[in-house]
Amino acid sequence: MNEVELIRAQLAAERRHAAEVANACASALAAAAVHASASEPAVAEFCQVCVDYLVWVLTRFEQRDQILSELFHSRLATNDGARRTLDELLTRPGKSRDALAKLEAALSSASGRATAPAGKRWHDFTEFFSGVWSARRDALDRLFEQYARVADWRAVSAVDADSILAERARYANVCGKLPAGIELRAAGASSP
Asked: Is the Cα torsion angle 108, 106, 134, 151 positive or negative in sign?
């Protein structure tokens, strides 16, 4: 596997893991609200590690967008088609900071308790993440792939051994707090 393939694989893993974490947290809150279980402290603890993971990943993607913008703006003329496409994509709904705002709303509605409104806000977040955010991210990734050099992949992704280990540790923390009956899987994925 060459360096670019390694970076792309890590970025794909971060996106996949984030989708799994968001869906698992929404499922845990929904299940706890229905069953009014005595395991609410465990669900609250699980949701907190989910939020920690999601904030970390979404912040990194927001930083990547900023670096990508700076890279294209420094390299391409104002009237260049790729630069105009990037500028249009960056103004589309679905920014990571928008996802973070929805995540904050979901977290504040939960306030440590599994309720129907908390479940609804988490569902709203997961829908935004898997829909609007992912569509924008896919378009940005396609554009970047067309123009990126190896050095660009390094600069924009900020993927290195330390960041890979940090992501894996955060994801393992989520896995370690997973409530009984809740699985880590992407939206639409069926149970094994």
From this structure: positive
